[in-house]
Amino acid sequence: MKVIIVHSSPNTDGLTAACATASQDGISHAGHEAQILVLNQMNIGLCQACNDGWGTCRTLHTCQVEDGFQALHQQTLQADALVLVTPVYWGEMSESAKAFTDRLRRCEATLGKESRMAGKPILLIAAAGGSGNGTVTCLLSLERWAQHIQARVFDLITVNRWSRDYKLQTIQAASHALVARGFPD
Ligand SMILES: Cc1cc2nc3c(=O)[nH]c(=O)nc-3n(C[C@H](O)[C@H](O)[C@H](O)COP(=O)(O)O)c2cc1C
């Protein structure tokens, strides 16, 4: 099983990075392959809501804004499962996570049940390193996003500064289970 772990913090040595590494450890301990992709290093800009609101996302299910998104879109479609880790900013996902998720949603949600993400397991992690507030609202919008693209949410995990130690273990265990067990029939 091939998994991509999307890391969406500008900080490559913080809580988000620790969560991504814990996930990768869990997946590799289960004998599967996981690649961490650092969104902030991938030149992925915001959705431009092309034309009157829709560009080729609606008709061709590709994004016409040419940057790093096209390669990431393909990598995402080729992966068997996705782990998305975002720092919590203002109770929401990070700007880079928003850019990626918005553009992917436009290309895939417009396919309805034919979405190429349909049924794909997704593990969503919100890392709040400040007050610890805002993980629920952050995950709420990510859960809705996963539903729009017809993916299946395997788990939603919150982590903050004081839950860090045991939540990193949880993330490792959840990532292991994601590839070793998947969803029950
Ligand atoms: C613009 C901004 C808004 C933030 N908002 C929140 C917040 O709502 N709740 C919280 O607990 N932390 C908040 N933080 C702190 C981040 O969640 C924290 O720094 C987190 O650890 C970032 O992940 P990192 O360690 O990968 O950088 C915010 C940080 C920034 C830069």
TrEMBL record:
InterPro entries: Flavoprotein-like_sf, FMN_Rdtase-like_dom, ISF_SsuE-like. This is Flavodoxin family protein. It comes from Anaerolinea thermolimosa. Pfam families: FMN_red. Keywords: Flavoprotein, FMN. GO terms for molecular function: oxidoreductase activity. Coiled coil: none annotated. Residues 1-153 form the NADPH-dependent FMN reductase-like domain. The keyword Ribonucleoprotein does not apply.
